[in-house]
Amino acid sequence: MALPPHATPLERVSHVGVRALSVIVLGYLVLPIVIVLPLSFTSGELLVYPLPAWSLRWYREFVTGATWTHATWNSLVLAVVTTAVATTLGMLAAFGLQGLRTRLKPALYGLLALPLIIPLVMVAVALFYYYARLGLVGTFTGLVMAHTVLALPFVVITIAATLQGFDGNLPRAAASLGASPLQTFRLVTLPLILPGVLSGAVFAFVTSFDELLVILFVGSPEQRTLPRQIWSGVSETMSPAVVAAAVVLIAVSLLLMAVVELLRRRGERLRGVTRP
Amino acid sequence: MPNLSRCWIALAAVLCLGALAPEARAQGKLVVGNAGGSSADAERKVFYGPFATANKITIQEESFNQELAKIRSQVETGNLIWDMVSTTAINVATGCEEGLLEKIDWSKYFDTKVFRDVGGVSECGVPYLFVSGGLAYDGNRIKDNAPKTWADFWNVTKWPGKRGLLYRAEQTFEVALMADGVPPAKAMEVLSAPGGVDRALKKLEELKPHVHWWKNGAESINLLSTGEVAMAYAWNGRVASANKTNNLNLKMELGAGHVSGCQYWAIMKGSKNKDLAIKLIQYAVTAQHQADFVRVISYGPANRDAYALLNDQEKATLPGQHLDKASLQLGKLYLGFWLANGDSLLQRFVKFAAQ
Amino acid sequence: MLALVAPSVLFIALFFVAPLGLFLYRSIDNFEVPGWLPRTTDALSAWSGEGLPDEAAFRAVAEDLAALNGTTALPLLGRRLNHNIPGFRGLITGTGSRVDPARPGRMREQLLALDARWGEPVYWQTIRRERHRLTAFYLLTALDLRYAPGGGIELASGESAIFLGLLGRTLGISLVVTVLCVLLGFPLAVTMAGASPARANLLLVLVLIPFWTSLLVRSTAWVILLQNQGVVNQLLIGLGLTTRPIPLIFNRVGLYIAMVHVLLPFMVLPLYSVLKSIPPELMRAAASLGAAPGTAFLRVYVPQALPGMVAGASLVFVLALGYYVTPALVGGPGDQMIGYFIAYFTNTAVNWGMASALGTLLLLVVALIYLALGRVVGLDRLAVR
């Protein structure tokens, strides 16, 4: 926003001030992450600058060490299964909600969004207490259920938002041309909402992949995930291996963020939304 | 456009993969709860590793900070994750009384007389190492003018910087009393007498603004080596191990008074691998393996026959020579006091630290 | 159509609502005392509460405790009553393991011989008070209240009474963090809203990067940066601003720095989307009508921005209230909030009643804020029309 020519000195100063403050705040947001990353490449054992030398030893430890590979594998398996379950359930729910015209709708949305509002530590503790009675503590099933519950709101909201911009005439047109409901879904609806569905899936994946508290309270030592291992690392010995693991987490998150962004643009293109 | 039928197959495959996830690997296995860090490393090297190989099983470890609650919640909810645990005398006594640990007649498996010097075996636990906790500092950061007493530890004017203390009531209360002038041998007496705990808390209140609480051994070493604290209460084995592995110069002043006691093996009530656990304990407490353990990490052996297998140089690293300055975490007074008051003192301590 | 939603609803009901409900119920659940001391609670319900109860009550207690001997229920009962009176545990377990109801003679004498505390009314009064299936004890303790010796409820004092202070601390920290987020987030959002599409996109990406980075990783980064030989202190010493490292972590300062960093995107993003929709012509129109820049800003821009600010601030506040990971990693013991104590009572003290009571308190506060928010902004923030 350029300053209008009639701007007063006060306006000019505040304009510059606001911009300067924005730059500082942006730096505050981004720099900490950026500054810490190179520490994973240190050849030494302490997390201080200047680095004695650059080295990949900590990444080697991450890739070969049993604890880290086991943790990464656990994270991946859990996240993939959670994504599958959550996306399926969420997609069904989003469709169902869209077609509903009852007064129940806001209440159902509220219910499905509940996991977003409740403090996570309470959810984790409550699940531990509940699972203890059901014998689900330390079981894979228990973890998948818990993560699915946490991921579901994201999936539903994302897909519902996509459906909102979806032109209901298209499936009707397909039906009028003789397509069966399944064919309509497969050839007309799904391709158009796929970006939204995939976005929802990505949100579910990231929710599970990054999740710490439920694993902390409900998981067994065998089910340690990457965040759980990093948490131990930070609480006990802070070694650059922990930073290397954190870098891996960041890389995965940012990659997925890019995927979501690309999907969003693709979705907009497909639905004919023009960018301002 | 991705073929949808392939998508369903992929989904099914993924769900099957989930079913194959971690649990499905069932073979001979023992899960041990221990204190992590260099202690666990030493245990792995001398006990778990060779035992696992010899018996073709896997031994999995989980570290914890001696919270009895971790043992309680597993046994009480019926969700046993650990088979056995390395823990403190208090936890063994309380756990035994509450039915959380298996009661075993250890004399059936080995000669229990060799543990008499360290207080003997208990109904539910076997001692396997003797540890001393005392005043530690970085010899590279404090060169001359080293601290000599716990009063020095409390003196933040002469030695500026933070202090590391163990985030537990036991051990920390004794240290506070020692700083308040109580001779180490009398610390337990004073603590268990009326007003003892108040006195300890009052002394801790003085130092509190400068305290950095640590919860596990690895943290304490970290704090010292990075200079985050100027002095800390630390366990002798960890200090010696850190000096050896990381070439540090951490020093301990045991002459100031130290808190010493044993770490015990105990078996979780209802463990399906009880016999395997007993075998591991048998393995770990033989004089030979106890001596090996001392060579790796300088904790004292619980089995007195191990001393005969150590040479003078190895014996010198042990805190034996400062036993007159020890507040011993043994005996009826100690156990009786903590058994009766453990829970409420823990709460008092946490609330004290939180304010 | 409803059938499509049903699986998800069932899921949330089974794995979210049910656990939470059960957990919250635990704050008033008192199955231990009436369950394990059935005869005693019966006998005491007829008792007035004055002095000591009669021989029947002594016999009832002896029989109840003897029945529990050797089971895990005895120490569990001891622990439960120990919450009310420290030391009760020893009384229960000590008596239970030694009492013999079959021995002839008055039970009263036998019990008093085993432990003199059976002669103190307060222990009997406690059992009597806790004889019902439901109890208010945990909730009262969570509010620093207790039963007065003479009857009624009074404010507790001494070192047990920390929960109101804890609540105050939690609210206070969340408030400070929220205010800081508003002060820092508003200029950024304004800049983003006024930037060209390409630049706005870049700025959005820069804000999304920390948003997508996990909470744990960001807190870890601050732990590394703020320690005594971390980058920040090295910079300060290098610039000559200080000779010794400043303690920036494991204290309130570090906590604020880390929490604001974590929560700022939650402020900026909703605010940005609201500000973006404010037509720029409005400010120009105000200027053309003679408004001074300050006036135009306060009377035209801010009212339009307010819904976004309120939405962002409420979100940040509620999220901050329930935080556990960041304070645990970055704060000291004196900076911990309610979430920490919920975990403490779960993991360390195994006092489910207190964990649940604190959780109920937290949830109540969160619910109140959301209800208030719902009035102002409308629940459709989260729902899609």
Keywords:
heterotrimer, B: alpha/beta, D-Maltodextrin-Binding Protein, domain 2, eleven-stranded mixed beta sheet, 11 strands, disordered N terminus, C: 385 residues, MetI-like fold
Short overview:
Chain B is built from 14 helices and eleven strands. With about 350 residues, chain B is α/β, with parallel strands linked by helices.
- Please mark out the parts of chain B with pLDDT under 50 across 5 or more consecutive residues, or reply none: 1-5, 18-26
Element string of chain B (H = helix, E = strand)? HEHEHEHEHEHHHEHEHEEHHEHEH
Task: Assign an overall shape of chain B.
Answer: globular
Q: What's the helix count of chain A? A: 11
CATH classification class of the largest domain in chain B: Alpha Beta
Q: How much helix, percentage-wise, in residues of chain B?
A: 40-55%
Going by CATH, what is the homologous superfamily of the largest domain in chain B?
Answer: Periplasmic binding protein-like II
Low-confidence stretches of chain A: none
CATH architecture descriptor text of the largest domain in chain B: 3-Layer(aba) Sandwich
Number of strands of chain A: 0
Termini separation of chain A comes to: 15 Å
Mean pLDDT of chain A: 87
Structural class of chain A: mainly alpha
Total domain count of chain B: 2
Q: Give me the secondary-structure category of chain B.
A: alpha/beta
Strands, helices and their partners?
The complex is a heterotrimer of chains A (276), B (355) and C (385).
Chain A: H1 9-36, H2 57-64, H3 66-99, H4 104-117, H5 120-134, H6 140-164, H7 169-176, H8 181-210, H9 213-218, H10 226-235, H11 240-270
Helix pairs in contact in A: 2-3, 2-11, 3-6, 3-8, 3-10, 4-6, 6-8, 7-8, 8-11, 10-11
Chain B: H1 4-19, E1 29-34, H2 37-55, E2 58-63, H3 68-77, E3 84-88, H4 89-97, E4 125-138, H5 150-154, E5 163-166, H6 172-179, H7 187-192, H8 196-207, E6 211-214, H9 217-225, E7 231-235, H10 236-246, E8 250-253, E9 258-267, H11 274-284, H12 287-296, E10 300-301, H13 312-316, E11 326-328, H14 331-353
Chain C: H1 2-25, H2 32-36, H3 38-45, H4 55-68, H5 73-84, H6 88-98, H7 107-114, H8 121-129, H9 137-142, E1 145-147, E2 153-155, H10 163-194, H11 197-212, H12 215-226, H13 231-238, H14 252-276, H15 281-288, H16 293-321, H17 325-330, H18 338-347, H19 352-377
Antiparallel strand pairs in C: 1-2
